[in-house]
Automatic annotation (TrEMBL):
Signal peptide: none annotated. GO terms for molecular function: manganese ion binding; myo-inosose-2 dehydratase activity. Pathway: Polyol metabolism; myo-inositol degradation into acetyl-CoA; acetyl-CoA from myo-inositol: step 2/7. It holds the Pfam family AP_endonuc_2. It comes from Vagococcus allomyrinae. Belongs to the IolE/MocC family. This is Inosose dehydratase. NCBIfam families: myo_inos_iolE.
C-alpha cells in the first residue's frame, strides 16, 4: 500500500478555539473552523468544545465538507477517582465517537495533572506512586476492554505536565499494559518539548502506535518556558507550539520511520496557538503544504 492509501490527514480545532483557554479564539465559529479545515486540504478533524455533541446534528456539517472524525480527547482520573466514575464518562464518550465513525479514543490520565494549573510545567510535574501506577495500568486495560466492545481501541496520550510525559514513563506504561488493550498516541511536539527523542520513541513502540499528532516546537520559546519556570498554558500563550515546518523538528526522518512501519491511520496536525497571533487558516495551509512537500501525501 502507498503512503497516501494508508494515512489520512486531519487537523485539530484547537488552533481555532482553545479548549483549555476558551477565550483564545472565542470569536471563531464552529462553522468557520470546519470550513477552513476543508479549505486547507484536510479530510479529518478531532472534536472541539464548540462542536455539536449529538451525532445526528454534527454529521451533516462534516459530510458537507467531506470531513471525518479522527478521534477526540478523553480525560481519565484513574489515579484519583473510583474507576466507575471514569468508566461512566468514558462509555458516553465512546458511544459518541463510535456513532461518528472513529476507530480510536484518545485517553490521557489527568489525575494530579498540572497542565491546566499555574505551576512550572517542568519542576512541578507529577510523579506517580507505585499504587497509582497500578491503578493507572489496570484502569486503562479496563477502558481498553470497554472500547473493544465497539470494535475500537484506546490510544494513550503522553502529555506535558502529567504523570506520563517522559521516555521512561512511556516505556513503563507500554511494558505494564497489554498491547491488545492499550495502544499509544505518538505526539511529536510533546516529546520534543519534554526533551525526549521522538524518533527513538516511535521506533521503540511502533507496533503499539495507532494515532499520531504532528506539532512543531519553537525552540526559543521552549527554552524560555524552562528559564522562566512557566506553566504549560503560559507556554502555549507564548507560542511554544506551531505547525510542522515552522519550528525546530525535522519531520523527514519521522515520516520515513512511519512509512517503514506501515502505519495505517490518522496523522493529526495539532498546534495550539493564540489564533489572534497565528491565523488558523494560514497555519493550516502552511502545515498542509509542508507535509505535502515532505511526505508527498
Amino acid at each position: 500500500m502507498t503512503t497516501a492509501s494508508r494515512i489520512k490527514l486531519a487537523i485539530a480545532p484547537i488552533a481555532w478555539t482553545n479548549d483549555d483557554m476558551p477565550e483564545l479564539g472565542k470569536e471563531n465559529s464552529f462553522e468557520q473552523c470546519i470550513s477552513e479545515m476543508a479549505l486547507a486540504g484536510f479530510t479529518g478533524t478531532e472534536i472541539g468544545n464548540k462542536y455539536p455533541k449529538d451525532p445526528d446534528v454534527l454529521r451533516p456539517y462534516l459530510t458537507l465538507r467531506h470531513l471525518e472524525v479522527a478521534s477526540a480527547w478523553f480525560s481519565a482520573f484513574l489515579t484519583t477517582q473510583p474507576f466507575e466514575e471514569t468508566a461512566g464518562a468514558f462509555i458516553k464518550h465512546r458511544d459518541f465517537l463510535h456513532a461518528m465513525g472513529a476507530k480510536v479514543i484518545v485517553v490521557s490520565e489527568q489525575g494530579h495533572s498540572i497542565q491546566g494549573q499555574d505551576l512550572p510545567v517542568f519542576t512541578k510535574k507529577p510523579v506517580f506512586t507505585e499504587e497509582e501506577w497500578q491503578r493507572l495500568t489496570e484502569g486503562l486495560e479496563k477502558l481498553g476492554d470497554l472500547a473493544a466492545e465497539k470494535g475500537m481501541a484506546i490510544v494513550y496520550h503522553h502529555h506535558m505536565g502529567t504523570g506520563v510525559q517522559t521516555t521512561a514513563e512511556i516505556d513503563r506504561l507500554m511494558a505494564e499494559t497489554h498491547p491488545d488493550k492499550v495502544s499509544l498516541l505518538f505526539d511529536t511536539g510533546h516529546l520534543v518539548f519534554s526533551g525526549e527523542d521522538p524518533l527513538a520513541i516511535y521506533q521503540a513502540h511502533q507496533k503499539r502506535i495507532k494515532h499520531i499528532h504532528f506539532k512543531d516546537i519553537r525552540e526559543d520559546v521552549a527554552k524560555e518556558v524552562v528559564a522562566e519556570a512557566d506553566s504549560f498554558l503560559t507556554g502555549v500563550r507564548k507560542g511554544v507550539f506551531t505547525v510542522p515546518g515552522d519550528g525546530m523538528i525535522d519531520f523527514k526522518p519521522i515520516c520515513e520511520a512511519i512509512d517503514a512501519s506501515q502505519y495505517e491511520g490518522w496523522v493529526v496536525v495539532e498546534a495550539e496557538q493564540d489564533p489572534a497571533l497565528a491565523n488558523p487558516l494560514e497555519y493550516a495551509i502552511k502545515a498542509r503544504n509542508y507535509i505535502k512537500g515532505t511526505w508527498a501525501i
